[in-house]
Design brief:
With about 300 residues, the chain is α+β, with helices and mostly antiparallel strands. It folds into 3 domains: about 5-55, Uridine Diphospho-n-acetylenolpyruvylglucosamine Reductase, domain 2, CATH 3.30.43.10; about 60-175, Uridine Diphospho-n-acetylenolpyruvylglucosamine Reductase, domain 3 (2-Layer Sandwich); about 185-295, Enolase-like, domain 1 (2-Layer Sandwich). The chain has helices spanning about 15-25, 35-45, 85-90, 90-95, 100-105, 110-115, 120-125, 130-135, 155-160, 235, 245-260, 270-295, and strands at about 5-10, 30, 50-55, 65, 75-80, 140-145, 150, 170-175, 185-190, 200-210, 215-225, 230. It has a 5-stranded antiparallel β-sheet with strand order 4-5-8-6-7. The protein has a 4-stranded antiparallel β-sheet with strand order 9-10-11-12. A hairpin with an 8-residue loop joins strand 4 and strand 5. The chain starts with 6 loop residues before the first strand and ends in a 10-residue tail after the last helix.
Amino acid sequence: MGRNGHVVWQPADLEEAWELGSTYGPDACYVSGGTWLRIQWEAGNIPRPRHLVRLDLIPGLYGVAEAQDSGAGGGGMRIGAMMPVAACMKDPRLVQDVPLLGRACSRIAAPAVREFATLGGNIATAGDVVPALLALRAGVEWFDGDTVLSEPLEDWLQKRSSRQAEPHRILVSVVVPRLARDADVFYVKLTRRETFVPSVVTVAGQVVLSRDGCVQEVLLSAGGATTPPLRLRRAEECLCGRPLSTAGVEEVYTAVRDEFVPNPADPFASPAYCREAAANLIAAELLKIWKKHEGGVPGETRS
């Protein structure tokens, strides 16, 4: 029994955790690091349920392993949902193969919080790591009480945004395709101060150019403190299959302004400001990539 009559359960495996969640239903909550939940409970933004089901003691939800099929036509890395954000920044395999993830994790909260906050918790709250994962074409894996099911992260976010009823399940892992060696990536988080505040706007992207300078692949995403992250597919269409150029970047700028619809609930930044900021940030990063491949100043790449 926890404080104030709350019950804290410590299941030994996924099956037991799922059964507890099923038994207590809306009066139960799965808890990992709990960093986001504690802030919300203390602020009175969400009610604290009577039954807290800990997931951090389940060994199978930790670690990094090779994924034979990443869901994107090749191998990648499978990352346990309970991996602390700080551990994702330090794991040598992730640093080598998906450095964009580590860059995003380094911008979450403050160093002490990153030791407890988990990758799965940040995803469940559509946090600042999600734009980076969208730009990496990540997938998520869930335990539904019987088996582990997979789906693209983008599909889950779309269902979440449309408020579709979610089945009862537990986030088990994230699968990230291995980054192409010739990919240029970027991640930019615009905030009101350096750390421990929600972003005003967060953008991320991945661009792969062919030898003749044409865009073979492009993934662009954006989100914000009160705006769910999303893929900017119309903006991507402005570049895909075409040479990267200043004219193309101008088209992307316009497309982002049209496609990105910020939530008006943010008390610190208007939707017009957030839309303009997202378009400017993405255009600036694409211009860095263009200059790099045109022999100009280097841009933000895989390092």
